[in-house]
Design goal:
Blueprint (H helix, E strand, L loop, with lengths): L2 H6 L7 E10 H14 L4 E6 L6 H15 L3 E7 L8 H10 L2 E5 L19 E5 L3 E5 L19 E6 L3 H18 L21 E8 L7 H12 L3 E6 L6 H12 L3 E9 L3 H8 L2 H6 L3 E9 L3 E5 L3 E5 L5 H5 L3 E7 L1 H15 L2 E3 L2 H5 L3 H21 L6
Parallel strand pairs: 2-3, 3-4, 9-10, 10-11
Antiparallel strand pairs: 1-7, 1-8, 2-5, 5-6, 6-7, 8-14, 9-12, 11-15, 12-13, 13-14
Helix pairs in contact: 2-3, 3-4, 6-7, 8-13
Amino acid sequence: MSARRGQRFFSGLEPVPGNHVRLLQSGTEFFPALLAAIDAARVEIHLETYIFNTDAAAAQVRDALVRAAQRGVAVRLLIDGVGSRDLPDDWRSRLQAAGVVVRVYRPLVGRWRSNPKSLRRLHRKLAVIDARIAFVGGMNLIDDFEPVRHAAPRLDYSVEVQGPLIARIHQSAWHLWRLVALTQLQRSSRRAPAIEPSWPTDGRMRAAYVVRDNFAHRRDIERSYLAAVALADREIVIANAYFLPGRRFRKLLKRAAARGVRVHLLVQGHTDHPFFQAAARALYRDLLAAGVAIHEYQASELHAKVAVVDGHWATVGSSNIDPFSLLLAREANIVVDDDAFAHDLRQRLQAAITQSVTLDPADWHRRPWPRRMLSWLAYGGVRVMLGLAGAGRWA
């Protein structure tokens, strides 16, 4: 692949060379790495999460944050007002008593379910420690088997990042921390603390840090996907828990299949949101007819938000391919241009596909009309919700 073509795959982003990016699958790989980094922290910890659960895995993170704060590390925890609304007062008190500063992104006021504006959430999952190591991905602070229990752990991914890309991740975390403080009339330092960078110098991966917000980066994650799909020559593998793309995204997938690209979508078989799954299934018939292969994962709950294109471009992050992530929530993804990393992720996704049901286009075409009607009603309901939330154009 030429350098010029590789650059085009980043769709206007600025990839940073010289990084180490390690793929972490599910909590068995993610939590030990995160805990080790927290326990090694000397100066500061930024941690952002949508869900901070109260299970054993989350309790380990809580205790590690407490230990860090007690030894003088500046610990900043940002949680979402909806996703972490059930965080017990005694957990929060224990963190704060140790010196952890806890802030809530868009805290609940009254009955949040009756207010469509509450759909604008902090959905990104991010930790950056000492401006030295960062974790970005789809994993909340929740045990793999909570709240729904299957024989296998929840399928999800994050990445551990070391290298010069850390500077952008750290700046992003600090910027959001200050923004939340400003909107809530809380005091906050104007500048990030000066930390001497201490990352490895032998990294070889080009990577970009991509966010979605409601200001200058409203479509960056979506554009990164669209560019990769439009340029694909051989294969597209997308695993996404909540897959409800707009018309432009669907059109590019169908065009890719028409020019001979193998397009595989790995989606939820067991869902925690039946209404949303019904809405997503309204789109399957058209995609299947165009030659897109759709696999519904059966081994456990699928929560992944990842993709691999042509064996070298890969992305791992918090953003679903749905209008709530792409138009409303704060999200963060890592995009990597590296053959070995993409190969690793692709192999894991291929293993997951073998544990899935592959939808048959003919059978899907013959679905009973009540089920098709239910799907289209759910799809219409999603569009109504977006309009009430002021999401803008979904295309």
